[in-house]
Amino acid sequence: MTNQTVSDHPASDGPAVDPHLSADHLSADHLTVDRPSPDCPVEITLAALRGRWTTLVVRELFGGARGYGELAAALALSDKVLADRLAQLVAHGVVERVRTPGWPSRVTYTLTPRGERLRGVLDAMWEWGAA
Question: How many angstroms separate the CA atoms of 12 and 79, rounded?
């Protein structure tokens, strides 16, 4: 097995090789895709993380369950943006919204197991962007 990954690079005559990625991660499906598809795993990930602040909301939740007010204070963003990002993350199964009954009721947000798996994705994105 080689330690190469094929990627499209407009300035090259052939496929570019990234020695940091393994060819084991590629299948024939990866190489034959010619346009974005909503059921593509990469597009699903990008949709879940789309929008400014989304990755920072996830980062805050890596530390454990947080209330809406705690998230708002930590991130200093508008209520509309925070509410939108949390709804998006809940819709994609990244975050769970838990309402505790009582007076007053309390709502907390926590990462689902699917959301916890984003830690490696965000770490990889950080490393890629820093290189």
Answer: 46
